[in-house]
Amino acid sequence: MSAKGYVAIRIPAGWAGELHRSPHRQILFCLSGALKVTASDNEMRLVEAGSVWQMEDVSGKGHWSEVATPVPFDAVIILLDCPS
């Protein structure tokens, strides 16, 4: 799988986001903390330290995210190179 870039993120404890789609196909590697992710169909997953999440909801309604720990959520996101 080829990649076109990466970004390291830190989301503060207590943060809760709005409904949104993933801007690109991407893979997230959680380094610390935990993120509760709820899809528009109400399916929920917890992305915790050491886990990987492949985000492909680039169309449709998307998902909500919120930091589920009293510490920040730290992760690295790999932006996947999509064929034309």
Describe the structure.
The chain is mostly beta strands and 84 residues long. The chain has a single domain, classed as Jelly Rolls (Sandwich). Helix content is 0%, strand content 52%. The chain is built from no helices and seven strands. It has strands at residues 3-11, 26-32, 34-39, 44-48, 52-55, 63-67, 73-80. A four-stranded antiparallel beta sheet has the order 1-7-2-5, with no helix packed on it. The chain has a three-stranded antiparallel beta sheet with strand order 4-3-6, with no helix packed on it. The protein is globular and about 40 Å long. The mean pLDDT is 92.
Summary, kept brief:
This protein has 84 residues and is an all-beta fold.
Tell me the layout of helices and strands.
Elements: E1 3-11, E2 26-32, E3 34-39, E4 44-48, E5 52-55, E6 63-67, E7 73-80
Antiparallel strand pairs: 1-7, 2-5, 2-7, 3-4, 3-6
Number of helices: 0
Query: How many structural domains does the protein architecture include?
Result: 1
Strand order of the largest sheet: 1-7-2-5
Quaternary state of the chains: single chain
The H-and-E topology, N to C, reads as: EEEEEEE
Large-scale geometry? globular
Number of strands: 7
- What composes the largest sheet? 4 strands, antiparallel
Low-pLDDT sequence parts: none
CATH fold field value: Jelly Rolls
